[in-house]
Design brief:
The structure is a single chain. This protein has helices at about 10-25, 30-50, 60-80, 85-90, 110-115, 160-165, 170-185; strands spanning about 80-85, 110, 120-130, 130-140, 145-155, 185-190. The chain is an alpha+beta fold and about 190 residues long. The strands form 2 sheets. It has a 4-stranded antiparallel sheet with strand order 2-3-4-5. The protein has a two-stranded antiparallel sheet with strand order 1-6. About 30% of the residues are buried.
Amino acid sequence: MSLDLSGKTAAELKAMVANAEAILAGPNTKLHGKATEFREAAKLALSERRVLPPGNRAPPDEALNAAVARIKAVAVEALTKFDLSPATAKARGITTPHALLASSGAPKTGGGVRTKKFKRCPYISYRGPGGIAMLQYAMLPEEGAEGFWSGGLVAVGSAESKTGFDVAMEPEAAIAAFFQALTEIATARP
């Protein structure tokens, strides 16, 4: 029996190894065969995901770095034009507001990365009463694939709100669509 662990995170794989070792240390020998199989499969999956040491890493992706910088600049502009605070969103009836950026100040990572739809997908979003305003730069997982911009208003709970847009747009059109979406759902600053 082969185990497909490609959908597991590194934390889940580490937990699988720890759980299997706990079973192997226990008195129930009936489970030792399966525990050994799970432990070895999880260790193999972890070893395939190890990060390369410095010096062996791929060169930085200039297009991605430029896109992240551009998304940060758009976020700063959006914060000056609109009140995008979670408190304002809650006052407008949003029970689970979105922070525009990650807590580190960087763009958030799209759900499409977790599902392997995209290799990288930095994005910003704001949830208002009429939906979610999003701006993203997505890179497909194929080697050599170029990234694309998308932006606009998506419905809460839609596929786009969970894994990102599929439609490529020109960068300026995506940014304009994001600001148009903010105009529809966010409170403008005086």
